[in-house]
Specification:
- This protein is α/β, with parallel strands linked by helices and 372 residues long.
- The protein is built from 14 helices and eleven strands.
- Strand 2, helix 2 and strand 3 form a beta-alpha-beta unit.
Length: 372
């Protein structure tokens, strides 16, 4: 496999994680030149996403295609003494080591931080787990939805009727992915100054909660649960809200800056309501009532044509299929016609170079025998 060049050229990564947070993060690194080796359990199936969800006509999983590109595959049974020894030869050369088992599993497998550090003092070792390596919940099994439920964010995304709804965006997974990448980059930079590696304990729970400073006001200031109807982002603000149209469509307003409020209310013939938008969030019912009634007078298509000429933050609620098939979509197709989501980290110099090679299960064991 020809390695792409980039900002991370020469960085060697062993990734023992599976599913989304770790694999997506290490793919970001591979896109920018890192030599990423997927370490897959020698169980006949390997990375679970090889066999999950919709597939292309050739049987390739779409999910796997968008987390495994440009990587090499190394299958191993870490409980086998000989295979464990071969693996440690690789670990001795790795710049970055990623794992996402439940706490203590890596110790049982003999690949915990102390074991890897003993053969590779400069390694940057990153553990991604649901709740971190210590604390009350450390041993509780959880995936993204459970984290969202426990962190209170799923409660904030209830429907307007108050009923909890499944949250399809894996926000805990992706927050952990981004924080892991950020932490690894910090540690690699520090290593250039000290020569020493480090250990990162990345918790999905902590990662998700670190992203809620905009909704913590009532909790921190008054030690009480926020009222959704009084929260800016959850229905309290008339200009951060969803409105139904005559034909059952929806218009979303998502910016309450004074200039946008003025532009919209003036265009809708209600400049007298501009002053009402200066009231605190939760006290803007007169504006919400006006907007609710007004949007019901025309179809979604009508409103789209009207809002094209108004400078404000607005959209319809579009389907994922629409977002991923329009010209602006950040996609690229490989030679076989498979779609790939581009790397969102855009450099002017040395931009990401996507390798569309997908490794077969254990394809690179022979290449990696004896080291990278």
């Amino acid at each position: 496999m020809k390695r792409p060049t980039g900002k991370l050229g020469g960085i060697k990564v062993l990734d023992l994680s599976a599913f989304l947070p770790g694999p997506h993060m290490s793919m970001m690194m591979a896109d920018h030149g890192a030599d990423v080796v997927m370490v897959e359990a020698d169980n006949g199936r390997g990375e679970p996403t090889r066999h999950m969800g919709e597939t292309y006509e050739d049987g390739t999983s779409v999910w796997f295609t968008n987390i495994a590109r440009g990587k090499r595959s190394y299958k191993v049974n870490l409980k086998d003494t000989a295979q464990h020894g071969d693996f440690m030869t690789l670990a001795a050369e790795a710049d970055v080591f990623i794992e996402a088992f439940r706490p203590s599993v890596v110790t049982r497998l003999g690949v915990d931080y102390d074991a890897i550090k003993a053969v590779n003092p400069g390694v940057v070792y990153c553990s991604i787990s649901a709740f971190g390596q210590d604390g009350h919940y450390r041993d509780k099994p959880a995936h993204d939805l459970i984290i969202q439920a426990m962190a209170g964010t799923a409660d904030l995304t209830r429907g307007m009727d108050g009923t909890p709804a499944l949250t399809p965006m894996p926000s805990a997974d992706m927050a952990a992915s981004l924080h892991a990448l950020s932490g690894i980059m910090m540690a690699l930079y520090r290593r250039t100054q000290t020569g020493m590696g480090d250990y990162l304990d990345i918790s999905m729970y902590d990662s998700l909660l670190s992203w809620v400073p905009n909704v913590t006001g009532a909790v921190f200031a008054h030690d009480k649960q926020p009222k959704r109807e009084e929260m800016r982002s959850f229905g309290g603000n008339a200009f951060v809200n969803i409105y139904e149209t005559k034909d059952g469509g929806h218009i979303v307003l998502g910016g309450s800056e004074p200039k946008f409020v003025t532009n919209v209310l003036t265009a809708l013939g209600a400049p007298q309501l501009i002053e009402a938008m200066k009231k605190p969030v939760g006290q803007q019912d007169v504006v919400k009532d006006f907007l609710s009634k007004t949007f019901l007078l025309k179809t979604q298509s009508d409103w789209e044509n009207i809002f094209k000429n108004i400078d404000c933050c607005w959209s319809t609620i579009r389907r994922l299929h629409t977002a991923l098939t329009e010209p602006h979509a950040p996609l690229v197709k490989d030679d076989t016609g498979k779609s790939h989501i581009k790397n969102p980290i855009r450099f002017a110099s040395e931009p990401a170079q996507l390798s569309f090679d997908l490794p077969e299960f254990g394809q690179h064991n022979d290449d990696l025998k004896g080291g990278f």
